[in-house]
């Protein structure tokens, strides 16, 4: 049939996302790593799904979040779960470390990039293993970067300055969480595809903790905002 | 066979330009849909049933290309049937949703299909799963879809409440679908409602003259 895109023999693959998740911010702190994301999935410009849990627990000490096409995020969660399951088959008690997940995801993303069929995602993997904190960004092409702080999407434009000024890698968990909250306040004010309900998750020595969604407080009742009126410009 | 019509650049595939909706209430769920199947500007079927049977207590609401969604629904119906035979008990709604999801995700570039899977199972009660274009799966307490849904987001956000009674939920779905049909050229005709509970399935046919908003 003429409408079958597979007729030509080559499968075309989409490079444009449909349902997308927003910015992700992750910071290392003294005892672990904390990630924050909002709870919105957008359908183009529409804020379609407002209560989505986007922080995935991949293993006892690894968290995975991503921004970009939500169906690809769900697919990656399945792929990462497969690794742990197949590791169980060796029955030697050895589990993949956070870095193993990060590396796997980088290889998978690169393979798909080479076939011009990418996982349309900016991925963040965070973990705590053998007393060491782990945080990495894997982008749509499979570029793998380990770092002490990671931002995706709009957060990369707005939030790096906030992070540089108010965070250091040995701060406390509460300090790191507060920096992330400040970042999402700015994002809510300046990013059309952001939402003020966010969710934080952190990994430390004890394991993974994912918190309830919370609302960030933003201030709109500035005097300048309230008393702003166009008629004043033209009638004085 | 005459291909000239299909090969013409103006040929529009038959789609379910549509309004579909599902809402969970206290004790079950209500599904509603309009009845118009359009082929471009022509109404190909004015009395369609868009509430597709998947299993005894699992239904799917189809929007997008009629050919794509009917075919996928046929496969999923078959898989769920075989699965339920082996299981010996009612299948989980999430199972059906996942089977749909596998199609929509693997063939995301060739398909134009967005589906709402709604049903009741003995494990988690009434559930609704929304599967938009790319193949994600999102569980919700209420869901609207199809071209008509764009006109009623405001109405639904304003009028939805948690834990509605059957009567409240039925009125909510009926009015929402009616409002969508009122403004969307690709939705119209009659409204079909379905009430899914633990004990039974109740279909309702709302004649054109009884549609609350015209």
From TrEMBL, chain A:
Signal peptide feature range: none
Protein origin, superkingdom: Eukaryota
Entry's localization field: Cytoplasm; Nucleus
Keywords: Cytoplasm, Nucleus, Proteasome
A biological-process GO annotation: proteolysis involved in protein catabolic process
Stretches of the chain forming a coiled coil according to its record: none
GO cellular component: cytoplasm; nucleus; proteasome core complex
Annotated PROSITE patterns: PROTEASOME_BETA_1
Function: Non-catalytic component of the proteasome.
Subunit record text: The 26S proteasome consists of a 20S proteasome core and two 19S regulatory subunits. The 20S proteasome core is composed of 28 subunits that are arranged in four stacked rings, resulting in a barrel-shaped structure. The two end rings are each formed by seven alpha subunits, and the two central rings are each formed by seven beta subunits. The catalytic chamber with the active sites is on the inside of the barrel.
Family, similarity comment: Belongs to the peptidase T1B family.
Name of the protein: Proteasome subunit beta
Source organism of the structure: Paramecium sonneborni
UniProtKB/TrEMBL annotation, chain B:
PROSITE patterns linked to this entry: PROTEASOME_BETA_1 (PS00854), PROTEASOME_BETA_2 (PS51476)
Keyword Cytoplasm annotated: yes
Source species, domain of life: Eukaryota
InterPro entries: Proteasome_bsu_CS, Proteasome_sua/b, Proteasome_suB-type
Subcellular location: Cytoplasm; Nucleus
UniProt keyword annotations, A-Z: Cytoplasm, Hydrolase, Nucleus, Protease, Proteasome
Gene Ontology terms describing biological process: proteolysis involved in protein catabolic process
Matches recorded under Pfam families: Proteasome
Function of the protein: Component of the proteasome, a multicatalytic proteinase complex which is characterized by its ability to cleave peptides with Arg, Phe, Tyr, Leu, and Glu adjacent to the leaving group at neutral or slightly basic pH. The proteasome has an ATP-dependent proteolytic activity.
Family: Belongs to the peptidase T1B family.
UniProt-recorded name of the protein: Proteasome subunit beta
